[in-house]
Amino acid sequence: MQSEVRVSSQEPIDHISENIYGHFAEHLGRCIYGGLWVGDDDRVETEDGIRMDTVSLLRGLNMPVLRWPGGCFADDYHWEDGVGPREDRPRRRNLWWTQGRENVPEESNEFGTDEFLRLCQLLDTDPYIAVNVGSSTPQEALDWIEYCNSGGDTELADRRRENGQEEPYGVKYWGIGNENWGCGGRFAPDEYADEYRRFANYFNGFDKLMNEDSTEFIACGHLTDDWNKVFFDSLNGGMEFGPGSFLGMGSPFNLMDHFSVHRYYQAGGDTDFTDEQYYKIFARAQKVGGDIDRAAETISEYVPEGEIGIIVDEWGVWHPEARSDNGLEQENTVRDALTTAGVLDLIHARADVVSMANIAQLVNVLQCLVQTDEEDAWRTPTYHVFDLYENHVGQTALETSVDTEQREIDGEDHDVPMVSASASEGDGELFVTASNRRHDEAELLTVDVGSSAYSVSSATVLFEGNDIREYSTKENAESFEASNLAVTDEGDGTITFEAPPASVVGLTLTE
Predict the structure, then answer these.
(1) Which domain holds residue 428?
(2) Which of 331, 359, 393 is a domain's end point?
(3) Is residue 179 annotated as part of the catalytic site, yes or no?
(4) Does any domain span residue 231?
(5) Rounded mean pLDDT of 107-126?
(6) Catalytic: 374?
(7) CA torsion 95→101→103→107, rounded to 10°?
(8) Number of helical (H) and strand (E) elements in the chain, helices listed first
(9) Residue ranges of the Alpha-L-arabinofuranosidase C-terminal domain (predicted)?
């Protein structure tokens, strides 16, 4: 079969934010305990209780941002339970999730704010903290910001110093709740608007008068247009009363920097799926693009263009095998990794409105990038897609069109293109990624970059020879690594190559 990818270097979309390659870690299953944190367990190398084999693998991704502590966990979490001497921290319920692989919904609070921010320091990544709206108050959230970010001579700043961190952490990203239409309180959109306005009002005051570093605030959105519109209507309406210009709070965008949406998808099981279900999951993953487009359209009705970015701060494959009673663990296959490439292509095409994305989740849970057992850590196929796509970071996304067969899927809103692709340009380099979704046939691909000034400097391929149902284990993890791909550079801006079945290709071209 044949397909063509055409790159329009004269049609730039926007800068691709590095935060699009963000991640998410929740107090759930073996993500934190066993995956990132082992405390005094000496079976693996640790630093301040953090397992360094996991950190070493994650450092290879140059992670830009990490969201914590949830997820649903966030809106039942009280941050003061997780600071100070660990032996004095209370053991609490985990209202939503099992810890480990056993059905024990309890939280030890061994891993709290200082441990999380120490992890971010080890990873050289920006922290993104989601505060408790559903079962807490603005005062508790404001105290948390003060603990993390105040350089003053206050009780909370002094407490942070007593706990070992002299200088403010400078946490930039603060989410005001999580899925507050669901597990975060089951708020109606107007109710959440009231809560958001109340929390953001106090955050904004702290940011203006006491904060040494700028902070950015994130509202929780929904997948339905009606919910989001009612939220913005209510938020906007509530700000019409009182002095609109007081403290600069005259419109919603003065209290909000980003607006988030979530999207999970599945079709069949993690490894037990039919050929039809194999393609169906790509149709469902394409909904991410529509989610972003609808959110952007709603935002444009209320605030100036570009003032509020869209964050997809939970996304990925959620198979039926991942249940609360097993810590949401599932096998991580080549099929899952191919969906990742397609979603990242969709996000690149919307680089002008997407300010961050956070795949769920970082370690052991759902579509994780790293898996661990008691003594080892290894990469998943999805890890390798992130690693390959990192060349897009910081470049300018370019309009990319694909002429390929479309597979119609019964009952789905989207057809499935057999090839997905995206391209970016910067500093004399052009990078193209393309996926062949056919699981049983190679695809002869022609990439036309529209300029003879570029020539291929490297070409790599993921998953050549891997089966679509193959999943990562400690024993086979190296089999998913990239290998070199033979291509033909015609010298006129066109490159041809054969993309193996179910593979992802990366082309680097230089001037």
Answers:
(1) 401-510
(2) 393
(3) yes
(4) no
(5) 97
(6) no
(7) -40
(8) 10, 26
(9) 313-503
Q: Residue 400 pLDDT more than 80? A: yes
Beta strands 173-176 and 216-220 are parallel
- pTM over cut 0.85: yes
3-state DSSP helix/strand/coil % of the chain, to nearest 5: 30, 30, 40
In tens, the pLDDT along 270-298 reads 999 999 999 999 999 999 999 999 999 99
Report how many domains make up the chain: 2
| Residue 59 in domain | yes
Residue type, 445: L
Q: Is pLDDT above 90 for 238?
A: no
* pLDDT attached to residue 104: 84
pLDDT at 209 over 80: no
CA torsion 251→311→263→220, rounded to 10°?
-40
pLDDT of 426 reads 94
* 304 and 180 belong to one structural domain: yes
Same domain, 275 and 386: yes
Assess whether 407 and 386 both reside in one domain.
Answer: no
Based on the domain organization, do 405 and 366 belong to the same domain?
no
Catalytic residue from among 107, 110, 179, 195: 179
In the set 107, 110, 314, 464, the catalytic residue is: 314
